[in-house]
Amino acid sequence: MRRTAALGRYGEDVAAAHLQAAGMVVVARNWRCDAGEVDIVATDGSTLVICEVKTRSGVHFGTPTEAITPRKLRRLRHLAFRWLEANGRHAPLVRIDVIGVVQAPTGAPVVEHLRGVG
Amino acid sequence: MALARACGAVPTGISATVVTVEVDVARGLPSVGIVGLPQASVAEAKWRVRSAVENAGLQWPASRITIGLSPADVPKSGTSLDLPIAVGILRATEQVPEASLHVDGLALFLGELGLDGSVRPVRGALAAVIAARRAGVRTVVAPVGNAADIDCVPGMSAVCITDLPQLARVLSGQDSGCRVAPVVTGTTRGSVPDFAEVRGQAHARYALEVAAAGSHHCSLVGPPGAGKTMLASRLAGILPDLDDDLALEVTSIHALAGQRPIGQGVERRPPCIAPHHSSSAVSILGTIRGSHPVPGALTLAHGGVLFLDEAPEFSRPALEGLRQPLESGTVSIMRAGQSAHLPARFQLVLAANPCPCGMAVGRGDGCRCTSVARRRYAERLSGPLLDRIDIRLAIAPPAPAEAAADPGESTSSIAARVRQARERAAHRFSGLPWSVNAQIPPALLRRQWAPDASGQSLLEQVSASMTSLRGLDRVVRLAWSVADLRGAARPGADHVAIALGLRAESP
Fold first, then answer.
1. What CATH number is associated with residue A27?
2. Rounded to the nearest 5°, which phi and psi values hold at B455?
3. Residue A63 and residue B62: Cβ atoms within 8 Å?
4. Among all residues of chain B, which has the CA nearest to that of A66?
5. Is residue B507's pLDDT more than 50?
6. In B308-331, which positions are buried (b, 16+ CB within 10 angstroms) versus exposed (e)?
7. Which domains does chain B have, with CATH numbers?
8. Range of the domain at A58
9. Do A66 and B28 touch (CB under 8 A)?
10. Interface test with A, best of B25, B29, B59 (most A CBs within 10 A)
């Protein structure tokens, strides 16, 4: 469990760096409320980006992005509004992104960034 | 990422519809969606195709996959779209090229996928190939088990495969498909019993020979045990083989209705359909289920024999429903908002007892029925229906001397005479819209296709006692068949006399 938690934390670092390199501003990380957790909250211009990060050490159990189910997407949409509400902010557009990080035992991590998935 | 197409086909009632399968592999959360009215068996294809592709050692894209089935408003069922869906995915992900040496971009793909990547034969392949030929397709990629269904359609070339890895090689031009030995087809319906088993009954045998020669409808009336069923079930055996187009049509209807094993190619022997008298009117006439027609016994008997044993016991709607198809050769089924026209050009054979107890033959001494019961029974076969029957035959049980006689003439030698008579008629009617005597239009029976002078004068003598003009027409048609069997150029008085004898024995 500790190994996967550490891998997840590492993946989120990689994802945050990827978002910043893509010109977005990371506003919050690991924001929690009673409905769940958002891995990364960022802004892309005036658009609020709710970002879910999935990290895997290999693709034997499917690609990381495959782990996003329709139910999880619904939860992320709900969390976006909970975050806006909790922070007293408004956003003209809200987007859900998914970042899959595959870290093979050796070599650089492979990042797959899916924008606006739901 | 990419969009690709592959051509497939789905069964739609008694024929098939060519379906263009479009596969869009786009960025997004990995998912597979099938649009275009997939029924349960098609919607399940996504599970089969994914397992098959992965287990065949090919790549399944971790992308948002949308599979569109066009025309999108036709409900699609069956498993034959598995293969075109797999091909679309392989093409969209550029694992195989759009077209190759052996398979052009238009080729039709047919086949069900096993989870291990094997390609299995599908039902109704013949109808799919016929529909594809009409759409301009010339190449069909199909499992080995369906090879016979493609070979029997002229102008179509088959590329046969056994599994997905072989498909990938074929589509990359590295393989030309399996060599399949041509299957000898066409006479698998060999279960029709032989006429040699019928003892005696010379008159009935001759009547059925005339019926076969001119494709005349007939009714057999006689007591239980006279041999009505025995005679009628042998009629299909003496009919000539179906011609190319009709054989394809009949075979594909039977295959789609699940009446034939998969991958048997074309059947040239005419069918004999004998529904039980408790059958519903819908099962006899056909219906529309969902948006596709479902053929009834009439359509399954197209090109062959429809034998209604114990005819008066059939339901009234079923019997009266025969009238339109007997005239037009099609059965038109209407439901609110949709209609279907199914082919139903069959030869009708009715068998009936003379009365409910079955003993009202000859003087009728053994009959225990009241006159009212006897009349009610006879009335179940309505006048308009019986008027369409050319040959009315009374069958008596064979006398003991007859029953002990030598075996009768065999089916094959009768069939040879029938074939000659049919050829004679077909030659006479070449260029005309009909080819058998039973279909000569009434107006022409009194002019171009009238009997010779001696025959005409005999007809005039009896016309006073004939109930209807239509009855008279039927005598002339029968006379033509008698003349054809005897090799006469035009029916004369003796042919007309024989025809009257086949016609007049009313129940």
1. 3.40.1350.10
2. -65, -40
3. yes
4. B30
5. no
6. bbebbbbeeebbebbeebbeeebb
7. 2-171 (3.30.230.10), 195-409 (3.40.50.300)
8. 2-114
9. no
10. B29
Residue B439 per-residue DSSP state: G
pLDDT tens-digit readout, B140-195: 999 999 999 998 899 999 999 999 999 999 999 888 888 776 665 555 555 678 88
A114 to B62: CB separation less than 8 angstroms, yes or no: no
- Phi–psi pair at B259, nearest 5 degrees: -95, 0
**Tens digits of per-residue pLDDT, B111-144?**
999 999 999 999 999 999 999 999 999 999 999 9
Residue in the structure block whose two tokens are 């019986």:
B386
Rounded Cα distance, B341 and B322, in Å = 14
Interfacial residues of A (vs B; Cβ cutoff 8 Å): 62-63, 65-66, 68, 73, 98, 114, 117-118
**Residue of A53, A113, A114, A115 to mutate, interface with B, max B Cβ within 10 Å:** A114
Q: Is B101 on the interface with A (CB under 8 A)?
A: no
Calculate how close chain B gets to A61, using CA atoms only, in Å: 12
The tally of domains found in chain A comes to 1
CA angle B474, B478, B483 (to 5 degrees): 145
